[in-house]
Amino acid sequence: MKPSIEEIEFHGIPALRLQGPRGARAVVSKLGAQVLSWITPDGRERLFLSDKAVFDGSVAIRGGIPVCWPQFSGLGDLPKHGFVRTRTWQLGAQRCGDDYALATLALSDDEATRGLWPHAFHLELTVMLEADRLDLELSVTNTGGAEFSFTGALHTYLRVVQVEDVTLEGLYGHDYRDAANGDAVIRDSGTHIAVEAEMDRVYRRVKRPQLLQAGNLSLATQSQGFPDVVVWNPWVDKCAALADMPADGWRHMLCVEAAAEQPVVVAAGDEWYGRQTLVAV
Questions:
Q1: What's the pLDDT band for 115 if we cut at 50, 70, 90?
Q2: Are 54 and 137 spatial neighbours (Cβ–Cβ below 8 Å)?
Q3: What global pTM score does this model have?
Q4: Is 155 labeled as catalytic in the residue annotation?
Q5: Measured between alpha carbons, how far apart are the two ends of the chain, in Å?
Q6: Could you say which of 81, 119, 155, 174 is catalytic?
């Protein structure tokens, strides 16, 4: 089957299905420009999507790869993780080749966004699916007459069989802000990360790729433009407090996010690009 793109409904909302080479496929919601599914040629789902996720736009969809913008987490006066996760984006470019399918979704400011954040902007999220690889690129254009700054993330939920069996390599020697430990700044001195309790870390100025390993499951992630990497798992108690997560949801996910925790300044008329690449190894 040749790579293709079709418009579908997914849990009752408009979405795109990207069909890639060798049976790879992905689903991207127009709500939030959120990748909700990525299946590699081995038939394995690589993204975690909560089976209690809400799809009516009243809250962000729990799982997949949400676009957090123009605010990361609660670091500001906006709603947590900004406002674009619950906005409907418009389909822009789409094309396919022998070895890829690519779609771009776009969002611009309007009266509602300017009521929350008084800046003119144009966002594009481009999703490219290849056989064993998923690329996401977020472009931010300042279409107004004055500079603005933002923080943000591609909040990637990776699906794992059992998070206690997972190791994450590639963050040795980096400082991280530990939000689960009073925001203490700590230098990672281990060869890998193992998840044994709640984890909420922002690793700073990361240039190396990360490798997630669990038995025969290996997945590499790398960011460009985004300087930071967030590693998050809510563990038992925090997961139980999330209405849109099953009680055991923590066990089957680990977020490894491309992030910009410190403000990124975009001058009037300028553009910024950030990318995250996921590769099944």
A1: very high
A2: no
A3: 0.97
A4: yes
A5: 23
A6: 155
